[in-house]
Amino acid sequence: MVALTIDNLAVEVPEGSTILEAARSVGIHIPSLCTLPEMHHSPGACRICVVEVERARSLVASCVYPVANGMKVKTNSRRVREARERVMEFMLSDHPRDCNICQKHGNCELQQVAEQVGTRDITVPCTDFTIHDIDDSSDALVRDASKCINCLRCVTACAEVQGVFLLTPEGRGFDSRVVPAMGHNLNDSACTFCGQCAVVCPTGAIVEKDHTDLVWAALEDPTKHVVVQEAPAIRAQLGEEFGLPPGTLVTGKMITALRRLGFDRVFDTNFTADLTIIEEGNELLHRAKTGGKLPMITSCSPGWIKFIEHFYPDLLPHVSTCKSPQQMFGALAKTYYAEKEGIDPANIFVVSIMPCTAKKFEAARPEMRSSGYRDVDVVLTTRELGRMLRQAGIDLAALPEGDYDAPMGQYSGAATIFGATGGVMEAALRTVYAVVTGKNLPSLDITAVRGLDGIKEAALVIGDLGEVRAAVAHGLGNARKLMDRVAAGQADYHFIEIMACPGGCVGGGGQPLPASDEKRRLRAGALYQDDSDVQSLRQSHENPSIKTLYDDFLKAPLGEKSHHLLHTHYTPREV
Fold first, then answer.
1. Is 147 assigned a catalytic role?
2. If you average pLDDT over residues 497-511, what whole number do you get?
3. Catalytic residue status for 320
4. pTM for this prediction
5. pLDDT, tens digit, for every residue of 76-126?
6. Alpha carbon distance, N-terminus to C-terminus of the chain
7. Over the range 300-331, which residues count as b (16 or more CB within 10 Å of their CB) and which as e?
8. β-pairing, 60-61 with 177-180?
9. Is 220 known to be catalytic?
10. Nearest CA to 14 among 29, 25, 28?
């Protein structure tokens, strides 16, 4: 432990701590725009967090300066306050003045920190701010470099957390900016569209592409039959957009809100999450019995799929051929549902509410048209849905509870936990065990695959299959570690689940802001509670609506119709 003094307060912290960490441990909040608790290394780029250290020649950046025994620190001296104000003035002097129409308005950390440091005037000469081209080449994300403050959070998240190493700083002074490697736009790069850069960006320099106007237009078109599906994580996230505590389940209120927006049917992605388990579980059993490629790896996360297409294309045969639940839903909405209701599929408009920006890219993939049409027409993030509800004057917290529509609204507890890292694995193992042994697991709670550890492992003896070994990774940096082991022949697993985002879908690129591991834990906890509350229906293969789907339409898992509508292929891509 190291003993020091901060603002005349005695502090003791572990050796290796930074001044910033030491100050926050005793309730002294030093402003910063480049550091985040979940990142192991701060880039030390913004210089807002400067403090005065006795006998130091100049002010130091507290986010990277290590503590020492006997150190005396001032965080609020006149010299410190003036320096922070000056740094903030320089940032604001070259920043667009469109705050009221910026997508980050209300969630902008630049605004919040400017208020904290007391900036009330800009005394340095203002520029006509550096104008950069806006990169809206992708279906998922938009980059506006003119709003970049060079905090390098996105660079750190992309490299340290996600292991993609796509973003890099270039230029100096007012010409400095963060760009994809080799100056490519996002759509022509190895970007996975996971959106973690948008989650950590303190300004509006990287945001999700807003598709709310397309949904408003569809809702107002009398020729369109507009249906909506919501990912499992949404019910544990959406409340935050309306001031409710993280981890508040708002399933019934969300259903009512979507009906009031004007959707003709409110369905649930959980329905096809259960379907995914049936198809994926049978695929795993088929591979295990016929000598197929193992370990089999999940395919629910589109950011992960694009990652392996770029960085490990030789391992694509390991990936399940199942579409994600989102895309299975779209295909069935324009075939099974259209046939059942007697609606021309050309007039069915499918909207997805997802915690994920990569889902926007996934829906636009050319492979995702097995219904004969684009399977999912528009994907909105949790944040976009929050904006639409506020536009419509709908107060989510005050709404009564609603129920999902049939036939694609019934789901099991296993489907709900898809939203948390390890949830797909847990749901799959429940069903595989029951299919192979003819009985349920002694306990349906497989806690070994829960939690925020980067890589988790579990082993389960399943009847004639013997010991089935599984691994779970979340965050593409952890996925890279697992894939290196698979490539080296050192991954002795049967089944691997990978989610692109930290925490899984509860930490997706479209989640409410700001993000933190504590919020991800609370959201995941809500999903596990939702699962345990449904004691009578906690396994995907027990879902009556899924049984009806097979009886009336699909006929059999891995059958001809299932293969056409619910399975896909992948595309090796350049790095």
1. no
2. 98
3. yes
4. 0.94
5. 999 999 999 999 999 998 899 889 999 999 899 999 999 999 998 888 877
6. 45
7. bbbbbbbbbbbbbeeebebbbbbbbbbbbbbb
8. unpaired
9. no
10. 25
Residue 21 among the catalytic residues: no
Q: Does residue 253 carry a catalytic annotation?
A: no
pLDDT by residue (tens digit) across 351-381? 999 999 999 999 999 999 999 999 999 999 9
**Measured distance CA(49)–CA(80) in Å, rounded:** 9
Annotation marks residue 280 as catalytic:
yes
The single residue of 115, 367, 457, 518 carrying the catalytic annotation is 367
46 is catalytic: no
Active site residue 25: no
d(CA 222, CA 226): 10
Residues 307 and 318: their CA atoms lie apart, in Å, by 14
The predicted-structure confidence for 301-336, as pLDDT tens digits, reads as follows 999 999 999 999 999 999 999 999 999 999 999 999
Report yes or no: 141 and 193 within 8 Å, Cβ to Cβ: yes
* Beta partners for residue 177, in sequence order: 170
Q: What SS3 state is found at 380? A: strand
Asked if 486 contacts 211 with a C-beta cutoff of 8 angstroms, the reply is no
- One of 362, 384, 426, 542 is an active-site residue; which one? 362
Which tokens in the block code for residue 277? 């388990």
Quick one: which of 290, 295, 302 has its CA closest to 457?
295
